Amino acid sequence: MRLHSPDDLKTLQAELCNNGHWTGRTLIIPAGTCGRASGANDLIRKAREELLRGEFAHLIRVRVTGCHGFCETEPSILVEPDGLFYPRLKPADVGRLVEATARGEIVEDLVWLDRETGARIPHQRDVPFFKKQRRTILSRSEQVDPEDIDSYLRNGGYSALLKALEGGDPAWVLQEVKSSGLRGRGGAGFPTGVKWEMLAKQPSTQGKFLVCNADEGDPGAYMDRSILEGNPHSILEGMLIGGYATGATDGIIYVRNEYPLAIKHLHIALEQARGLGLLGENILGTGYSFDIQVVQGAGAFVCGEETALIRSIEGQMGEPRQRPPFPIQSGIHGRPTSINNVETWANIPIIIEQGAEVFAETGTEHNSGTKIFSLVGKIRNTGLVEVPMGITIREIVHEIGGGPVGNAEIKAVQTGGPSGGCIPASRFELPIDYDGLAKAGSIMGSGGMIVMDGHTCVVDVAKYFMGFLKDESCGKCFTCRKGTQRMHEILDDITQGRGTHDQLDLLEELALVVKDTTMCGLGQTAANPVLSTLRYFRDEYLAHIDQQRCPAGVCKPLITFSINENCSGCQACAKACPADAIYGERKQRHTIDTSKCIKCGTCRSVCKRDAVEVA
Amino acid sequence: MNGMVSLTINGLVVSVETGMTVLEAARFMGFPIPTLCHMDGLSPYGACRLCVVEIGEAPRARLVSSCTYPVEEGLIVRTASRRVIRARKMILELLLASCPQSKIIQDLAAAHDVQQQRFRQEYEDCILCGLCVRICEEQMMAKAIGFRNRGEKRSIGTPFDLHSDECRLCGACMYVCPACQLRCTYTEPEKAVCGGCANLSPPCIEKEPFDDMMCNMTPCVACEIQKD
User: Fold this and answer.
1) Of A300, A319, A516, the CB nearest to B63
2) In which domain, by residue range, is A233 found?
3) Which of A279, A346, B10, B172 would bridge with A273, disulfide CB 3.0–4.6 Å?
4) For residue A298, what is the domain's CATH number?
């Protein structure tokens, strides 16, 4: 079926709403990459089996969606319309759950258990992780089956496109995006509306490009993947609106090859949209033509940089070039090109649908809307959190994230991935927005947020990021290629206990020069992990150099394991030790033979009495 | 596009043709800027970063590579500010740490008063400036060699390291290479003194590590021995 006019689309939406109206309950099973990895497919199979076996099919349906954000608790089930949330399910629990749901009951022992109060919290909206969030983008992933355009249309999908097309005025769309105050979610925070306006003004006889940058390469960041997997049509709709507003003719989604599920869902979405006439020539009979293709990148971190991305799309080696000319003037094959991040595109339909004013109410001045962060590391609740701009780091880490795991204290968060910097706990009252983070020596970045506690060595973290960057630098600029290698070398020396004060000075000097002299954003920010950790945690560096000591107990050459008087002689550590370095009689305090010890930390992780000490 | 733009270089207001790079403009006006990966007749690449200059005014002043940055109306350029000098010295120190045997790098370091090298000494054959890649493609129209891989693993060579039919053994890559003049003279860098001109017979015959020499020419035009 092909839709020939805006009215056709409205009729279809209305029809889908009527026919698809479901009064029963729905088991929503998130099966993004994270869900599938933790066993969501088994839950789906089991749930379908149970529905058939118990003949509940007229009462309950199953909807498979993308990730809802609480990856820590996968595989989980959300029951609609009650909003019941069942975390960390096993396939064996599904039978009970289905039967109870059919009776309209709650399975008390399977719902969320609050560790502080010991209370059971059945509803998702009351779970602390969800409570503080403002989930405008992520909540859509709960409602939509990513492989089914009907499901998207039923939930008001493509209404924003309809609104834009029916308005008949691209300038109005531009103005809406501009006055919404939306800033690029890729990290730099350039106002999207201003970028689009520049693109719209560019003269071009051969067409203009819109690009969706889905080359998400930061370690620990995966919000773009989740959006693409969970709601691919929202990206298509955003790009269609963008094309209409700017006069662009071609859209490209540049997605990394490491995201097979996202690519699959995108291809399905594109085919379905094309089939309905929502993509291609003369969309909905309005005379507006726009088509989108998917380009798969080979997974180079640097290809997230605009000019490298353009070269990669052109089929050349992904390395940045000098700006100016900016992509907006001369991009893919020399034509004007606007590149926006996945999350930016996902915001566009929301802006058009709600109106710019409503959108701008969320967040703070100059930083409107919500931002998705991927909260990972040494924190209790890991997952994707969508919060209004301007929320403090403390709220994210302690209230949504649930604070530290175990009894170690949280000491810092790294925002913005390897290009960002770390922010110490003393500055956790900092409101998160583009300008605030920059002032604190970090960047917003695409939204990775890695939490570190007392057992994380910042020198080791800096070394990890530098190791990542020395592999992922394109290698064109000498200072970036060699600079990251040399910084890694010095950091390695420090973690091995070979560092000197001169080297520390050299590290700082080199970091500043690398930041200054490279061509693209990767190199200019490559020194941030070093500079920010030096700024806030110089004492840890000095402990490594002066005292040959790693305060966090991470750097192997600088630590020794020993067993203290808490030892009950249970022999768990002796059995677990891969190097046979622990000896001692049963029910007697054990001893570690330091000459045999390989410092793997296994004894510490198996000990139930905190008897293994690291110094 | 033909017209003039005026910009300020080291406080001097100058007027140059549109489309020039900052490097061309500065050199035209007589301000020296050191370069390594730049060569007239080849497209600007911006790899060595030695030609950085400071543009704009504080607090938004920044360093850019002058060989790739186009002149703009009203641009303020400083070719030898403290920040530029500090960066250049560090770049030269890094170059010396990687490829001390290059006469060109030695000379540049001497000219910029770089007297120490504080990193762990390496002896690399290639600084990946890309001159050979560009001369092969742009002047010799051969495209026989190119960049491969990224980051630490980046290297230059023929596809799959096989002899390329595109290569006409013209020797242009060796001619432009700032690092290999000495490589073809001697393989023990510590003992090396530049003796390129005094060399009468191809020295690589006596060299053991011929395979590691990253010589892209088989057979070598100088010594005509087969590489494999």
Assistant:
1) A516
2) 143-359
3) A279
4) 3.40.50.11540
Task: Give the dihedral sign, CA B200/B201/B207/B209.
Answer: positive
pLDDT digits (tens, 9 = 90+) for B85-105: 999 999 999 999 998 878 789
Distance of CA B4 to the CA centre of its chain: 30
Please indicate, yes or no, whether residues A352 and A236 belong to a single structural domain of this protein.
yes
Tell me, what amino acid is at A237? E
Helix A478-495 × helix A528-546 angle, to 10°: 30
Residue pair A289/A281 in contact (Cβ under 8 Å)? The answer is yes
Give every strand in the sheet of A337-341, ordered side by side. Answer: A280-283, A288-297, A250-256, A209-214, A337-341
Confidence class for position A250, pLDDT limits 50, 70, 90:
very high
Which residue of B23, B65, B89, B90 to mutate against A (max A Cβ within 10 Å)?
B90
What is the DSSP annotation of A498-547?
Answer: ---HHHHHHHHHHHHHHHHH-SSHHHHHHTHHHHHHHHHHHHHHHHHHHS
Look up the ipTM and state it: 0.91
Q: Select from B48, B64, B94, B127 the residue whose CB has the most chain A CBs within 10 Å, as the one to mutate to test that interface.
A: B94
Q: In the block, which residue shows the tokens 């030096």?
A: A534
Say if A133 falls within a structural domain: no
**Is the confidence at residue B17, as pLDDT, over 80?**
yes
Q: Report the alpha-carbon distance of residue B48 to residue B108 in Å, rounded.
A: 13
For residue A86, give the DSSP letter. E
Are the beta carbons of B70 and B20 closer than 8 angstroms?
A: yes
Alpha helices (runs of H) in A80-144, residue ranges in sequence order: 91-102, 128-131, 138-143
Q: What angle do CA B35, B37, B38 make, to 5 degrees?
A: 65
Note the CATH architecture for domain B131-213. 2-Layer Sandwich (3.30)
Q: Is A321 on the interface with B (CB under 8 A)?
A: yes
Taking residues A206-216, what's their average pLDDT? 95
CA proximity to B41, closest of B188, B176, B212: B176
Among the three residues A296, A326, A359, which one is the final residue of a domain in this structure? A359
Task: Provide the whole-model pTM.
Answer: 0.91
A412, A423 in Cβ contact below 8 A? yes
CA-nearest of A161, A137, A138, A142 to A273 is A161
CATH number at residue A395: 3.10.20.600
- With 90 as the cut, is the pLDDT of residue A225 above it? yes
Which residues fall within 8 angstroms of residue A116, CB to CB, at 6 or more apart?
none
CATH number at residue A503: 1.20.1440.230
Confidence check: pLDDT of B212 > 60: no
Pick the CATH number of B1-124 from 2.30.110.10, 3.40.47.10, 3.30.450.40, 3.10.20.740: 3.10.20.740
Local confidence band at B42 (pLDDT 50, 70, 90 cut-offs):
very high
pLDDT value, residue B225? 42
- Read off the pLDDT of each residue in A412-424 and give the average, rounded to a whole number: 91
Tell me chain A's radius of gyration from C-alpha atoms: 26
Question: For B216, how many CA atoms within 13 A lie in the half-sphere containing its CB?
Answer: 30
List the one residue out of A293, A173, A332 whose CA is nearest residue A242: A173
Residues of chain B whose beta carbon is less than 8 angstroms from a beta carbon of chain A are: 44-49, 52, 62-65, 68-70, 72, 83, 86-87, 90-91, 94-95, 97-98, 118-120, 127-130, 146-147, 149-154
Would the CB atoms of B98 and A324 count as touching at under 8 Å?
A: no
Residue-wise pLDDT tens digits, A130-178: 999 999 999 999 999 999 999 999 999 999 999 999 998 999 999 999 9
pLDDT at B1: 53
Kindly state whether residue A14 falls inside one of the protein's structural domains.
no
Compute the distance between CA of residue A178 and CA of residue A246 in angstroms, rounded to an integer: 12
Taking the CA of residue A500 and the nearest CA in chain B, the distance in Å comes to 12
